[in-house]
Amino acid sequence: xxxxxxxxxxxxxxxxxxxxxxxxxxxxxxxxxxxxxxxxxxxxxxxxxxxxxxxxxxxxxxxxxxxxxxxxxxxxxxxxxxxxxxxxxxxxxxxxxxxxxxxxxxxxxxxxxxx
Length: 115
Description:
mainly beta, Thrombin, subunit H
């Protein structure tokens, strides 16, 4: 019998985390539906077509030495934009420009919740 084990190279975590997106001078605040070290899935009221380049700022509740949330900043691109039945759009964002140290912060956060 197979278990529902995450087999992805970069496992996803179903968590709502604060997410800020900046696109062409506009800022949007939302939260993730799921997150991995290479991307995020979130909801937005505004349509963003695939291939839209965005700046991403993610707040992880890992407390740093000063007791603050860990902030991850990177660049991403919209790889999928789907109509949401209740209104708005679900966006899949690929982090196409992320420093290794930032990627590790997300991976460490995700791994603490995986079996």
